[in-house]
Amino acid sequence: MNYRATLIAAIQTVGLYAAAYIIPVLGQVLALLTPVPLILVSLRHGRVEGLAALGTSTALIAVLGGWQAAAILLFTFGLMAVGIAEGIRKQMKPEQISLLGGLLPISVIGISAAFYFTRAGKNPIGAIEGYLRTSIAEAASLYSKMGLNDMATMVAAVTDSFIHHLVMLIPAITIATSVIQAATCYGISRAVMLRKDVASPLAGQPALAVWHAPDAWVWGLIAALAILVVPNETSRYIGWNLAIIFAVVYLAQGTAIVEFYLKKLRIRPFMRGLILALILAMPSLVFAIALGIVDIWADFRKVRGSVL
After folding, report:
1. What pLDDT is recorded for position 83?
2. Is the pLDDT of residue 101 over 90?
3. How far apart are CA 35 and CA 142, in angstroms?
4. pTM for this predicted structure
5. C-alpha torsion 44→46→52→58, nearest 10
6. Whole domain around residue 258: which residue ranges?
7. Phi, psi of 130 (to 5 degrees)
8. 292 with 279: CB under 8 angstroms?
9. Lowest-pLDDT choice from 196-200, 219-223, 286-290
10. Amino acid 307: pLDDT
11. Which of 150, 153, 204, 266 is deepest in the core (most CB within 10 A)?
């Protein structure tokens, strides 16, 4: 086993993960990239090194931050890294790799949560709503003590109805967030691997600029919109959850189209990233979603057939 590579990857993993607790805002963004060193060491040196780096980093976090922080690292970022690395190793398509990496930790956490709530005899929806209400009340009290009365009033104004709607949409929000993170980690890992080895099997995978979701996925979006018109509250929540997930899919496709034309204009990577960030941070992201959906029929980049 390559002990040096394993130790370096473990230290990098701990550094990225710990950034969320040390650096305000930017640290939380960096922490989302925690799976990347684990993915790279697994692909470059093998599964044993990848798993050893995960185990070492988990142990270090347990010593530094306690078992709760270590469990979060292992069962979220760790499982995501394992899923992405295995997906790349088996030469899956980019969307399959992102789904595997994003859904693996969600599945494990979901099964664990279901087991806990079943054993405890609690209603998960009621329990989560109660936790959010308590957290909001504590935040409002803290802001009041700090003299931030306007902020305290705004936080306290969150209604029970809003909390209920938010909790009912948590499945889609959680899945979409996890898959987006997995796709980002996959993209960064792919770029790093290709920079070191242009002959890597990853070279055959499409870059973001020419990627598109399987065209058949549009039926999922159509089904979600159809469910939304059913006059039943439960059905509507199911429809909204599905609609959010497919909106994220076509947001990614719309973003890929924008990236394609920015590359065609020879705009530098930093500026491309800045432009894409601005698009995603503003109401223009609705335009990107619409662009992704229309691309199913318009094929703006003429990439159908060469990618699928």
Report:
1. 96
2. yes
3. 34
4. 0.86
5. 60
6. 206-308
7. -65, -40
8. no
9. 196-200
10. 40
11. 153
Residue 200 DSSP one-character state = S
Q: What is the largest CA-CA distance in the chain?
A: 61
Please state the domain count of the chain: 1
Residue 225 lies in a domain: yes
- Round to whole Å and give the CA distance between 172 and 238: 9
Angle at CA of residue 70, ends 66 and 76, nearest 5° = 150
Single-letter code of the amino acid located at 89: R
- Cα pseudo-dihedral 252, 257, 258, 263, rounded to 10: 120
CA 50 to mean position of chain CA atoms: 21
31 lies in some domain: no
Instruction: Identify which of 211, 188, 205 has the alpha carbon closest to the alpha carbon of residue 269.
Output: 188
Give pLDDT tens digits for 294-304.
Answer: 999 989 998 87
Helix orientation angle between 124-145 and 160-168, rounded to the nearest 10 degrees: 130
Spatial distance between the Cα atoms of 106 and 112, rounded to a whole number of angstroms = 10
How is residue 57 written in tokens?
């980093």
CB 36 within 8 A of CB 50: no
Per residue in 43-76, pLDDT (tens digit) is 999 999 999 999 999 999 999 989 999 999 999 9
In this prediction, residues 107-131 reach a mean pLDDT of 88
Judge contact between 15 and 59, C-beta under 8 A.
Answer: no
d(CA 261, CA 178): 27
- The whole-angstrom separation of Cα 54 and Cα 200 is 24
User: Who has greater pLDDT, 127 or 305?
Assistant: 127
Report d(CA 189, CA 191) in Å as an integer. Answer: 5
Query: What's the rounded Cα separation, in Å, for the pair 198 and 190?
Result: 11
CA distance 201 to 194: 9
Distance of alpha carbon 158 from alpha carbon 169, whole angstroms: 16
Does residue 305 fall inside a structural domain? Answer: yes
Alpha carbons 211 and 187: distance in angstroms, whole number: 12
Domain presence at residue 178: no
